[in-house]
Amino acid sequence: MQRITILGATGSIGVSTLDVLARHPERYSVYALSAHSRVDELAAQCERFRPARAVVGSAAAAARLSALLQAKGLRTEVEYGEQALCAVASAAEVDAVMAAIVGAAGLAPTLAAARAGKKVLLANKEALVMSGQLFMDAVRDSGAVLLPIDSEHNAIFQCLPHGYGRAPEAAGVAKVLLTASGGPFLTRAVDTLDAVTPEQACKHPNWVMGRKISVDSATMMNKGLEVIEAHWLFGAPADLIEVVIHPQSVIHSMVSYVDGSVLAQLGNPDMRTPIAHALAWPERIASGVAQLDLTQMGGLQFERPDFVRFPCLALAFDALRAGGTAPALLNAANEVAVQAFLDQRIGFRQIDRVIAQVMDSVPHGAASSIAAVMAQDATARAAAETYIGSHAK
Ligand code: NAD
Ligand code: MG
């Protein structure tokens, strides 16, 4: 029996994870669940999955959750705040941690799980973008097992040889081919993009996801963050990673080898497949996802990304090549800009301008410690807010 902590249980990935766990009660039990503010949803999850511990974002939310659980006669211990998140991610009772908090808020608890040597199921790509070297060092030093949940990285993981040692050349890897749907604005006239609404940006053609990653998909910053994520997970330099637009999202990514072979992982676009893969690895379990019917598919298309339409993708490649804390600056500026767009303080095309401005004005340094990374994160957020304040609609 594997005992699981889910960080971000009420989000899109968290709910899909619980769906897979519920199909295999003989294999998995839930040790802890976390949510930021959706207390009612978390209470319902606690009633169904009976975790020993639950963590929320504030004292007020903890008081409400405690009251709800007591009324149902549940004995789940309720805690709040970052230290509690780190505690449920690293507790001795836990075998695997699903890291599915969105954004920089996920960094500390995800790192705590890695340092404690857990099986880390990594959905929170922002943690790896911010502090890739420190994170991978923690995994190596503790002997943690890191399994990617992001569908592209999970696909690449499946296409690499067993025991792959983060050395692409030694494994004969010629290219890592990251597929991208291109999001909802792949064909929309570029000069109309500034008028798009948050609702339009969040309406992804193939995937149902949280709002932040949905906007990231529309700007293709999501793919940019994934390029950086692939760099750290697979030890691939920027030049070895190629983004291929594939609007159908059936091929989830590919690895091209020096002998001319290209291995791909295909499936219906449903995150329960990579979640089930990582949970059971190296075994396979049912995920609830329908089998792919190749005969029902129309054509599969592929094209090169347009960096004029998607400047965020170019900014991410720049940040990866610059190294140090540059990706942390990129990530922080993006988080602030996306929130400002969702709050309708800036237009869609201002997202990339905010990020470019922050990258230009804040000098990056060495990502030598988590404290150094967090300091740069704070500086970038402040610079982004200042820029937005003077350019708001
Ligand atoms: P979501 O917005 O649906 O859920 C986010 C979760 O994080 C919620 O449970 C929320 O309570 C929690 N949370 C938010 N802010 C928090 C804070 N400050 N402190 C603690 N908890 C907080 O997001 P999602 O779509 O499930 O994505 C989660 C992560 O997985 C992201 O990093 C995203 O990039 C990644 N991811 C998601 C998908 C997908 O299909 N949804 C695919 C690949 C990767
Ligand atoms: Mg992805």
TrEMBL record:
InterPro entries associated with the record: DXP_reductoisomerase, DXP_reductoisomerase_C, DXP_reductoisomerase_N, DXPR_C, DXPR_C_sf, NAD(P)-bd_dom_sf
Q: At which positions is Mn(2+) bound?
A: 150, 152, 226
> SUPFAM superfamilies from the xrefs?
1-deoxy-D-xylulose-5-phosphate reductoisomerase, C-terminal domain, Glyceraldehyde-3-phosphate dehydrogenase-like, C-terminal domain, NAD(P)-binding Rossmann-fold domains
Keywords in alphabetical order, please. Answer: Isomerase, Isoprene biosynthesis, Magnesium, Manganese, Metal-binding, NADP, Oxidoreductase
Where's the DXP reductoisomerase C-terminal domain? 266-382
| Residues covered by the 1-deoxy-D-xylulose 5-phosphate reductoisomerase C-terminal domain | 146-234
User: Which Gene Ontology molecular-function terms are recorded?
Assistant: 1-deoxy-D-xylulose-5-phosphate reductoisomerase activity; isomerase activity; manganese ion binding; NADPH binding
Biological process annotations from GO = isopentenyl diphosphate biosynthetic process, methylerythritol 4-phosphate pathway involved in terpenoid biosynthetic process
Q: Does the record bear DNA-binding in its keywords?
A: no
> Which protein are we looking at?
1-deoxy-D-xylulose 5-phosphate reductoisomerase
| The encoding gene | dxr
